[in-house]
Each structure stands twice: as C-alpha cells, then as structure tokens.
Design a protein that fits this description.
The protein has about 325 residues and is of the alpha/beta class. The chain has ten helices and ten strands. Helix 3 crosses helix 10 (about 305-315) and helix 5 (about 180-185) crosses helix 7 (about 230-260). The structure holds 5'-O-[(R)-(carboxyoxy)(hydroxy)phosphoryl]adenosine and zinc ion.
C-alpha cells in the first residue's frame, strides 16, 4: 500500500510517498523564502508560492519514490488547522488528484500529523501515550488511548511556545523563524543570568501561557542595553529558552505521573530545540519513561508526517469525499 501525502498548511510545500509499514519512500519539502524580508509569514504570498510549488514538489516526490501515479493507493492531505489560503491549495490539488485517479482521499489534522511523525522512525509505538505538541501555532498536551480515543489535557491559553521564540527572535533581529537562532545562541550563554517568569508553572492544571513571558523578555530588552556582540545576548537567549523549556518539561512530567503513563512522544517544530530534547531525554533515562522524539527533519512541517497519520485511517477505511473543505480552526481534532 502506498500513500501520496500533501502538506501545505503554512509556508512549506511538501509531498511524500509512504507505504503501509511507515517506510518513507520520499519526502520533498520546498520552504518558501519570500517571507524572510517581512520577518513573518505573509498569508497571501504563502498561497501563491504553494500554487507555484505544488506540481513540481509532487512530481519530484513520485520520481524519488520511483512510483507511478497509478501505483498510489490513496491521497492524503492536511486539511486543518493552518492558513486557509495555503490549505486550500493542497486540499484542492489532492481532491483533483484523488478524483482523477479514482482513489480514496484521506483528510489529516496537521497536529495529528506532528504526533504521528514519531511513527516514521518508531512504527511500533504502543498506546497509551502522552504527546507534548509544541509548534509555531500550538502547544498542547494530549493523552492518547488509541488513534481515535484521545483527550486534550491542556493547551496554551494565549501564545504558542514557537510563537514566543519567533517574536523574541524578531525583537533580537534574528531571521525568521527565531527558534533555531535562539537555540544556537543559548548554547553559548548562561541560563541563570536573568530570572524570567515561569508562567502557570504552579497552577494545578496542564495549561500553558507564554505571552507574559514574551512581554517580560521584551521589557527586559528595552530596559537593559543588551550588547548584540557580547555574551549578553547569549545569556538573554539561554535564560529565555530555559524559562520556556522548564515550564514545558515540568508540566509534561506532572501529566505523565498523574495519568500513570510512561510513554511520551514529543512533536512539532519546537521539539527540534536542543535543550528541550536534552532535558526530556535525561529524565527518561533516569526514570521509567519511554521517550520518542522525531529527528529534526520530522519535527518541523513535512508531508511524511501527514502520510504517517493517514496509514491507520487507510486501514480503517476512514476516507473522505470530495466535499472536503479546509478549516483554519486550531487544535488537534478528529476528522
Ligand atoms: O511545526 P512547525 O514547523 O510549524 C507549525 O506547525 O507551526 O513549527 C515551527 C516552529 C517555529 O516557531 C520555530 O521557531 C520553531 O518551530 N522551532 C524551534 C526550533 N526549530 C524550530 N524552536 C526552538 N528551537 C528550535 N531549535
Ligand atoms: Zn506544524
């Protein structure tokens, strides 16, 4: 069985071919660089770039997989959440392709895709597990009892973790997205130089908040004349990153303990963060926790994860018809 998967929810045009055992035959991603000068994604430009990129990206994915279109058994596509204009390009393309090939169409929630990115490298992950999903638009802690039976334990009440990284990155004059540059700078700094707040850490719930931390960091920057050429910038990044990582780490561990679950899947672009990976890995080694973290290429947006999330749906014949419409509605959800 082979699935052609398509992902266009934000600013990456991606297509992948994956088989029923989670073996990845190709995964091609075209990252848009037209947004760089704006310091953030311009939705209208993103849709236009997807229109330009989708056909060559799908073509290349099929060629690399040495797979004829006629050998595809289903077309999977990310349908929500995301930028509506961006999603429309992928969904319209997938619908047209599925109709012309007379093959089933599988709708995938992008957040579910991030979680299932873990199955590409660990196809035998068992339920139940808890997933911490941290991306540019989402921060969610979800308990999975099966692929269809899941419960959101908590989520951000304002900004997502990635959003906080990106906004502070922009303030520091880093290129977009700021997460990877803050990560790199933090490695050279001391994380106890600035005592940034740990929002909602002591509240008895699994929700997060990052907008106050972002404000605290930007006020600190305004008050203190941080020398961009000295260690001050690295200390700032290390202290800021540590505040985010500490809240994510402590609340996730609390969720594992309170639900007696010992399997943890990290997911989303912020799961590429080196400090986050390190603290969770260290904890898992010392405690009875099985941790799964996708390699960096599967943390950020890609079509392979959409294909991976489509496999169980294909096996359950959970297909969608051509009336499928994309939606920008946030969060993990059943489709
Ligand atoms: O999952 P993703 O590719 O797109 C969304 O669905 O949002 O996540 C993108 C986010 C951005 O906010 C980016 O700054 C963040 O992931 N990110 C990182 C790192 N690499 C990517 N954040 C912190 N450290 C990193 N190394
Ligand atoms: Zn994403």
């Amino acid at each position: 069985m082979r699935i052609l998967a398509i992902e266009t929810s934000c600013d990456d045009t991606s297509a992948a071919v994956i088989n029923g055992s989670y073996k990845l035959l190709s995964n091609i991603t075209l990252s848009q660089n037209v947004h760089e000068v704006f310091g953030g994604i311009v939705p209208e430009l993103a849709s236009r770039e997807h229109i330009r990129g989708i056909l060559p990206v799908v073509d290349t994915a099929l060629k690399e997989a040495e797979c004829e279109l006629s050998a595809i058994d289903a077309v999977a596509v990310a349908v929500n959440p995301g930028l509506i204009g961006s999603l429309l390009v992928g969904v319209s393309f997938a619908k047209g392709l599925a109709a012309s090939l007379n093959k089933p169409l599988i709708a995938v929630n992008h957040i579910m895709g991030h979680v299932f990115a873990n199955f590409i490298e660990h196809p035998a992950v068992e339920f139940p597990f808890i997933s911490l999903i941290v991306s540019g638009g989402h921060t969610e802690l979800v308990l999975f009892r099966s692929v269809t039976d899941f419960q959101v334990l908590g989520r951000t009440v304002d900004d997502a973790a990635g959003e906080a990284f990106d906004k502070i990155g922009k303030l520091l004059g880093f290129s977009y997205p700021g997460g990877p540059e803050i990560d790199a700078s933090a490695k050279k700094g001391k994380n106890n130089k600035i005592d940034f707040p740990r929002p909602m850490l002591h509240q008895d719930n699994f929700d997060f908040s990052f907008s106050g931390l972002k404000t605290a960091a930007s006020l600190y920057r305004k008050k203190h004349d941080i020398d961009q050429e000295s260690n001050e910038i690295h200390d700032f990044c290390a202290s800021f990153q540590t505040a985010i990582v500490e809240v994510l780490f402590k609340k996730t561990i609390r969720a594992l303990k309170s639900h007696s679950v010992n399997r943890l899947l990290l997911a989303g672009g912020v799961a590429a963060n080196s400090q986050l990976r390190e603290v969770f890995t260290r904890y898992a080694q010392k405690n009875d926790v099985n941790i799964f973290i996708p390699s960096i290429q599967f943390c950020t947006d890609n079509a392979a994860m959409i294909g991976a999330a489509a496999i169980m749906k294909y096996k359950d014949k959970n297909f969608t018809d051509l009336h499928l419409n994309p939606s920008p509605k946030k969060g993990i959800r059943r489709i």
